[in-house]
Each structure stands twice: as structure tokens, then as C-alpha cells.
């Protein structure tokens, strides 16, 4: 049994509800501003203003701007990974492990969250586009995305044992870029197609899967 002293220390270390709410506001504000302005364009002061808190608290909760950036990326990466792997397990159980099914397991959970999870999830897509395009965030990508990506690349490689792994990885990266485009650039589809109300990302999921599967298949067949 824990002593009264040790129990009191645990209560002292546990963050209060107010502290957790402040941290959530800070992460939300940082996510929006990093997505809009990139890492360099978003200041701690601006993040504090959007979060309606003090800059000192942003430093306290974020442990510095670069660590705050990593925390913002990590917050949704872990949830996405769990959703993707659960979808993959369900496909395996049904015996559906063709290329289109694998891609649907990977991109589908994000599309669902982007359609139903509010503006923060769309901001996260723009943020990940920044991370994917900037080599200085290689360590963040490796830490929070590579393990799950490698599982899916392994699954694709098992379907095409004679294919170059580099070509498979290239096609996979292109597919991720296409997913981000679907999530962040529907307005461009509307402008270029002349449609005032282009279908949402969820409606375009099957087109995206078909596009990416055909591209990967063509690339590895060369």
C-alpha cells in the first residue's frame, strides 16, 4: 500500500484540469499557425495570442518551439497509426490484401477524420505537407510515421516480390502526397472543373485509391 506521503506527491505531480485545457489550447493554436505559416513563420507570441494564454505558458508546455512543433505532429500521428493498423488487421481478417485495399486502409482513416473531425484535422494535413517537404524534419517523420509506413510498404512488397523496393517506396510517398492534396486542395478541383461544390474528400476516396493503385502498379511494372 502506498504511503500518504507518496500519494500526496503523485497528486502534486498530476496536471490539473486547467493545465490540461491550457495545453490543449496551445497545441490547437500551434497546429493552426504552423499549418498556415510553417515553422519559421509562427512565433511563440502569436501561438500564445491564439491560445489566449501567456507566452511563458507556451514555453512551459511546449518546452521550446521545436519541441512544440514535434508534439503537435505527434499528437495526431499516434491516433492515425492506430486507426490505420486496425483497418489493416480488419482487411487481413477478411482476406482483402490487394493493393487497392492496402491503400484504402492507409488513406481512409485520415480522410474520415478530415471530414468529421473539424478544422484542426484539415490544418494537420497542411502541417504534414510542411513536414514532408522539409528535410530538417526527417527525424520527426522517422519517429512518428516511418514505422507504420514501413508496415504498409512491406505488405505491398509481399504482393510484388520481384518489384524494386525503391519503386514501391516512391509510389507510396507519391500516394501520401496525393492524399494530402485531396484533403487540402478540393477548392482547386472546384475552380478547375467549374464546380461550385466539389465533392468532399470522403467522396473522392475511391478515386484517390484508384489513382494511387494504378500509379504504383505502373511504376513497379517497368
From TrEMBL:
It comes from the Bacteria. Residues 43-62 bind DNA. This is TetR/AcrR family transcriptional regulator. Pfam families: TetR_C_30, TetR_N. Keywords: DNA-binding, Transcription, Transcription regulation. It comes from Pseudohoeflea suaedae. Residues 20-80 form the HTH tetR-type domain. GO terms for molecular function: DNA-binding transcription factor activity; transcription cis-regulatory region binding.
Amino acid at each position: 500500500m502506498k504511503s500518504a506521503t507518496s500519494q500526496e506527491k503523485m497528486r502534486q505531480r498530476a496536471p490539473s484540469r486547467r493545465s490540461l485545457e491550457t495545453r490543449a489550447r496551445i497545441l490547437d493554436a500551434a497546429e493552426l499557425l504552423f499549418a498556415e505559416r510553417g515553422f519559421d513563420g509562427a512565433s511563440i507570441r502569436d501561438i500564445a495570442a491564439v491560445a489566449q494564454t501567456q507566452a511563458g505558458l507556451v514555453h512551459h508546455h511546449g518546452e521550446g518551439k521545436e519541441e512544440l512543433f514535434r508534439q503537435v505532429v505527434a499528437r495526431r500521428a499516434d491516433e492515425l497509426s492506430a486507426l490505420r493498423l486496425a483497418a489493416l488487421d480488419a482487411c487481413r481478417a477478411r482476406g482483402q490484401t490487394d493493393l487497392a485495399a492496402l491503400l484504402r486502409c492507409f488513406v481512409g482513416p485520415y480522410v474520415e477524420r478530415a471530414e468529421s473531425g473539424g478544422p484542426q484535422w484539415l490544418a494537420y494535413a497542411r502541417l504534414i505537407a510542411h513536414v514532408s517537404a522539409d528535410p530538417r524534419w526527417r527525424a520527426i517523420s522517422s519517429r512518428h510515421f516511418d514505422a507504420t509506413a514501413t508496415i504498409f510498404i512491406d505488405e505491398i512488397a509481399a504482393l510484388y516480390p520481384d518489384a524494386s523496393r525503391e519503386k514501391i517506396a516512391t509510389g507510396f510517398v507519391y500516394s501520401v502526397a496525393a492524399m494530402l492534396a485531396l484533403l487540402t486542395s478540393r477548392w482547386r478541383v472546384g475552380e478547375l472543373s467549374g464546380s461550385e461544390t466539389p465533392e468532399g474528400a470522403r467522396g473522392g476516396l475511391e478515386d484517390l485509391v484508384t489513382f494511387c493503385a494504378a500509379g504504383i502498379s505502373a511504376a513497379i511494372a517497368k
